């Protein structure tokens, strides 16, 4: 799907992927390898598999003063 060198990895975890369509108002971006990444850190991979969001446990959240 992309033409840059080196070619895209199959997963969006690598920083060599590029955003080809950004929709911040909807909370997602399309990467050049066909993956869709969401603002909550979840992903939809080109093969249809899902990567769950990386959530921080509530007891580790800092409270605002």
Compact overview of the structure:
The protein has no helices and five strands. The protein has strands spanning 19-23, 28-31, 36-38, 43-44, 50-51. Strands 1-2-3-4-5 form a five-stranded antiparallel sheet, with no helix packed on it.
Classify the helix fraction into a percent range: under 10%
Low-confidence stretches: none
> Strand-residue fraction?
15-25%
Biggest sheet, in brief? 5 strands, antiparallel
Total number of helices? 0
Mean pLDDT: 79
How far is the N terminus from the C terminus? 47 Å
The shape, in one word, is elongated
Specify Rg, calculated over alpha carbons: 14 Å
What is the number of beta strands? 5
Strand arrangement, major sheet:
1-2-3-4-5
Oligomeric assembly: single chain
Helix/strand/pairing category: mainly beta
Helix-strand pattern: EEEEE
Structure description:
With 65 residues, this protein is mostly beta strands. It is built from no helices and 5 strands. It has strands spanning 19-23, 28-31, 36-38, 43-44, 50-51. A 5-stranded antiparallel beta sheet has the order 1-2-3-4-5, with no helix packed on it. Strand 2 and strand 3 form a beta hairpin. It comes from Streptomyces coerulescens. This is DUF5999 family protein. InterPro entries: DUF5999.
